[in-house]
Amino acid sequence: MDTRNLISQRPEPRYVTIERALSRAIASGALPAGTVLTEGPIADLFGTSRTPVRTALNDLMAKGSLARFEGRGFVVQGGEPARVPLTPAMLGIGDGEPAKPHPVAAHLIARDFEDTLAQALPFGSWRINEQAAAEHFAVSRTVVRELLSRFQDRGLVRKDLRSHWMIGPLTARDINHYFAVRRKLEPLALTDSAPLTSMDAIDAMRQRLQTALTTPHSLAPDRLAEIEHDLHVRLLSRSPNPHLLRMIGQSQMALVVNRVFAKAVGSRPFELALREHAIVYEFLIRRAWSAAAAALDEHLHLSAERTCKRLMAISVFPMPDLPRYLKQSA
């Protein structure tokens, strides 16, 4: 099952749904000019917390549809303030039932959540707001907490002294440390795993790489990530040592730098790395496991310096458009 397709079908963030409903009600006159709006009643009608309601109201104020009302609540522009009881029909909900989100399993948002967090890594230190993330993905805080705990096990996020979830920063020193660990562990896992991997599977990875090398300057970031996954994850996954594989996974955090870099500048700078991959596969096809491990070690050695340079380049890139559940920390 391709969970990425399922992710794209997940419910939109709650604040977007609420903002649209309020905007339509204002435009249609269902919410007349002068109507006073406060967070509590709207949250009750939509079966949600006040956080997405607050976001929706602030967005509508920024667009000029609402104004602040006596420091508490908002008023629809264009009329004398009037407190009007809100009904589901006024907001297009219908049947008097709160517009509750459909339940979404953790695995359906995991890739989306992880990718977004990874994008923030090279741009400093960030605090992750559990409630805002839950509202963004239309899931419970329990689902968000479960995923953050998994990410913590892999070293992607951490908790600070106040038990706030944090991510970043990723520094050149971190990258060098990660690659030092990878150079020790990945060749070891390769010598464990490759002899247990079918030659058909190895050849399929090699063919994907060879196809990519026919157009190395125009590869989509997702395709580049798949090739990286072949060599550094899939090829090593047959190792019978789960502790080794877990430590490798925790040390591959620096791969996010290449992912962000590829999205910004394309695949042209990665051609040399792909050709280093090809050398590893040539040895694998010949069942020269030790030589393949040595080639992988050399590839990682060269990659460390390239990745540090890319991190420096990323520091001058425009900040990515990150969701509201990420707040930059001082």
TrEMBL record:
SMART domains linked to this entry: FCD, HTH_GNTR
Molecular functions (GO terms): DNA binding; DNA-binding transcription factor activity
Database matches in InterPro entries: GntR_C, TF_FadR/GntR_C, Tscrpt_reg_HTH_GntR, WH-like_DNA-bd_sf, WH_DNA-bd_sf
Domain HTH gntR-type: 12-79
Keyword terms: DNA-binding, Transcription, Transcription regulation
Listed Pfam families: FCD, GntR
The keyword Transcription regulation appears for this protein: yes
Protein name according to UniProt: GntR family transcriptional regulator
Source species of the chain: Jiella flava
